[in-house]
Amino acid sequence: MLRVLLLVLGLLPAAAAAQQPAPPNSLLLIAKPTLADPNFARTVVLVTQAEDASTVGVILNRPLQEKLQAFLPQDLSGEYYKDRVFQGGPVMRRVILSVFRSATAPQAPAFPVLKGVYLTMHPANIRALLADPASQYRIYAGFSGWAPNQLQSEFMRDGWYVLPADAETVFRRNTEGMWEEMIRRATKPKPTT
Asked: What is the pTM (predicted TM-score) of this model?
């Protein structure tokens, strides 16, 4: 369904969809200024689709004050993790997820998001990331989730702008002002030919 949504929204050209064996499986949802839900007001959400057609994602621009260790079991150390923990969404707020870069698919389950970028909550992946000081990843507490067709109904209520996802935005160091920037990008008039 995400592939169909990308095609319908013009974010994946039909010719590219026919040629690509593995199309992008993600997009960015940008909350419109009128979106009143406090869980998502003024957010930029990276979303991807699971095999069962449910949509999962993480909020990219809500850093938390809590340190990583507050979310980890006692046997795990976050000593190598130097970034902030971000609020991924309103679902399971104490569960740790990660968006990470990897040249190869991880052995434990993970959602492919972009080329070389994955989303996971599997403990084996999280442990491996935390143990490797060279890993490139960001940690989220909780996630955002929509049942099959739920997100489409939110589009019908006109709550979101949609933009293609890119690794630069996903791993952006300073997320301050991200929502405003994405609003400008989403509302910029499209050139006419």
From this structure: 0.86
